[in-house]
Amino acid sequence: MNVTIRNPPGTRLVPLTASLLIVIALVAVTGCGDQKQQADGLVRAAIEQSKADRHADALQLLGRAVALDPGLAEAFYLRGACFTKLHQTPQAVEEFSAATRLKPEWDEAWCALGIAQLTAGETEQGIESLSKALNLNPEMLSAWEARARGYRDLHLTEDELSDIEGLLQLDPVNCNALLRRGTLLSETDPALATEDFSKVISRDRTNATAWMQRGLCYNRSGDTDRALADLNIACRLQPDNFQPWLERGRILRSLNRLDDAISDLSKAVELAPNDVSTRLELGQAYLANSDPDAAEANLLEAERLSPENGDVREAMAQTDITRGHREEAPERVAELLAEQSTSSPLLTEATEITPAELPEETIAAPETLVHAEPVPVVEPGNFDAPQIRSALLAKSDRRKEAIEDQTRLISSGVGVKPNAAAQSVLNRGRLHLDGKEWTAATEDFSTYLEVCPDDAEALALRARAWLAQKETSHAITDLTLALLKKPDAADLYTLRAESFDQFNEPAAALADLQKAASLQPTRLDVQQKLAERLFQDRQFAKCAKALDALAASNAGQLSAEQRLLRGRARLADGNLNGAHEDASALAADESSSPGAVKSTDVALLQIMIALRRHDDVEALRLVKLIPEETLTPDVLLLYGQTLARQNLPDEAIRIFSNLLESDPSNTAALLARATVFVDTADWQAASNDADLVLQNLPDDPRALQIKAISLFQNDRFREALETLEHSALLSRDTNDSRWMRIQCCDELEMTFRELEELNALLGIAPTHEAARLLRAELLEELGHFDDAIADLSAVLQHDPVNLVALRDRGLLNQRRGNADAAVVDFTKAIELSPDDAELYYRRGIARHSTGQNDEAQQDLDHALELNPDLADAWYVIGNIEAGRGKPDVAVAAFAKAVEIKPEHAAAWYNRGNLLFSQSKMQQAIDCWTIAINIQPGLFRAYNNRAAAYDRLNQDTEALADYEKTLELNPGFVRAWDSLAWLLATSDNQKVRDAKRAVSLATKACELSEFKDWSCLNTLATCHAENQEFDAALKWAKQARAIAPEADRKELDQLVATYESRLKSKRMSVKPAGSVR
Question: Residue 663, Cβ neighbours under 10 Å: how many?
Fold first, then answer.
């Protein structure tokens, strides 16, 4: 009941009005256009911050811009740029991705996304994004250049070269592109490469790399003079780079300018002391210059750096021979002799008979070896017998003697059967391979392949040797060449799959295994490898299908191991019936054959099937059939997790603790136990286990999540938020993590950060009810009532019986003046919660504001039945009764309200208003005094108490209260008007001040824009009291012109009085105070 009381002039009486006291502090909410303008302004400010290298500040501004306008792609783009500057590449990728989703035709956003993805190691995705940029804008140089770099990272030389060509079509003088193309073409097309390097040099004569590369191209073309000239310039431009010195030293050594070569190579070694090639070149130069001591010193260092390097061993062997120390390095000498045999003229045609062609029984017969041993190793025209003897020695486990025979055959070969020597090299390579002498085997196979480069078997043998030495790329190359000769060789595909695995190329390995399996569908070992590989790659359906095909083939029934694998694959693929079939078959098979599987493995499969069927009871039964001490850690872990799900936390903790006693570093057990501690609200124990995990795995997301939960539950919200912001959690951001961050922000009152997080979460999970309810609450606090209502409506669209949403939307509708909508919401809420007194009270207020006082009264009465101590209900009843013209009933209702809640300022205030209307001035003053004590800023109470003091002729007190009213609310017109009247008409000479009264009355008219007839009349009266009748007449006439008809008669009399220029100092008798 907001009632303004004043003492008007003459007999002007305004009836008392009573209304509900609802004061809403509205925050202006700009429309959509204004929000976008604000967002654009924030983006511009962020650009300036970023230019000043204040990227973190820019990110904050951009976050606010996104909150205002979530569709502002430019804001996401700039956030990505800021994260890039801060070296936070994953976040940059996320922001650029958002920009491309919002503006899919924005070429620069795609380009920026691609570059960020390349930086993050997501090369294939980066190439895809850059391709989209180029589809949108084929002339974007940065996209061409970046995509070429991506192709380079994937070793896709042809694609890289194609992109460089595209770049050079747009920018023919791009030095980096020319330099790279020249480097790529230097081996295959040195002439064109030379042109590219020359173009670079013409634009940048200080580019040492271009000079060096052009020099190498000249050398490949046989123009050593130009080569040396270019390399001279490269060395002068980059004196601290070992590479130009090394290359110039190599050319000088090839020209037999050994002293110059040694000088250059020594400089290269000084700059790169740990480079094997540089040490080797220098050692060979010293050797050629007849300085074996210096050669040995450098070669020994090279051998230390790379013990298996064949070139180094050859050079060491040559050094030993030069120094006459052959006996000190027999192994090197043997290798050297084997390598020197490649130049023998005997290697001209294939051997006619090889050990592989001998019948097995001949090889195995002891007497054959007896007869073969006396055969001379070298007999002109007879290479077959020594070959057979070598094979027999090898079969008799006398491999060293067999190797010696092959070596003598190679060294002593003559021109009768020249290719016999080549076959001996191949056979010796096999012997080395069998003896795991990988380097020697590789060298022999390489020697043989120089003569017979298309021999698929030799390529495969060398690939095995490479593979054993971890030289995977060489192995893949040899096997690829072999497959070109034998495209249907399943063994070669299987071996190359193994090589691809070592090379960390799982997709290629799987493709080769699939090819091998298709070539030999009934070969058990190949099918087994394929199935295992598919299982490892989590292609469970394909794994099961492969084993199904094997079972249906001529190979017959699956082995127990294969059936177990199929059961696991079926289980992982969700085929529970098929998995159960395999598990049952395995359980029924009590075979103890070597192919049988462990009963524990079968039991574990059965347990997992039971768990997937949500049959924890059966799973526990199965686990208990196995003695606990025989269970593997994996089974124990699963057992503990099952106990936890069955609400047996103490037993689960015991199992996990036992696991940790035997292995304190068991991360899975620590995490499982921590999870149980979380479920049982033992936050400290959970945090301790999480900390133990984080000591060894500081980026473990599960441990970080548990730690954050524990910190949050212990009210350590800031630490919890810091933990949730760990990069390991942000990189796999889940809705649970986002929600916990939001709750931390809420507790820390980080309103705008909280709103930003809520916007992000609801963008991903729009049906997250708790998030929508919380955002609605925040938006209401910020004054964005329509947006808050929209969120609550979205909740109710998915959940029409959400009591909280109905109640809160009702309150917001009520605050927005949508009383009818509020009544609808409260009615639905009451249907869900019929015993909630607050809901009846709220609906009563809404009905009262629409004039449905009888229905409002019923709601309020029912609310009081449910909660007799609901003071606010009595207060609203008082307002309703006052509006019905029942002041006594209303006063009683207000009295009841303050009896229940003595600090109810509004009830005291409205009670005073009613007592004033009953002329109970002192009682009214007492009520307003209490209201002021409770709420010192209640300016209307001061104003109305002043009016009551005026009625009691306590003008000094009235003056003080009017002054206080204006101090609290300088814009309150009625206080200016009433105070002016008091000063103009008071009988108290200490109060009376006619001149000030004119000033105050003028202020009242200014605030009301001279449109309030009552204020104009007061101004006229004040002028009259100052004997300024001309002005009094002017304002009296204006007051009469706009006054209501009922008040014009009195104003006519005043006009007439002023016109007669009565000289009386008192033109009006001060009437009793009244309520206006």
Answer: 12
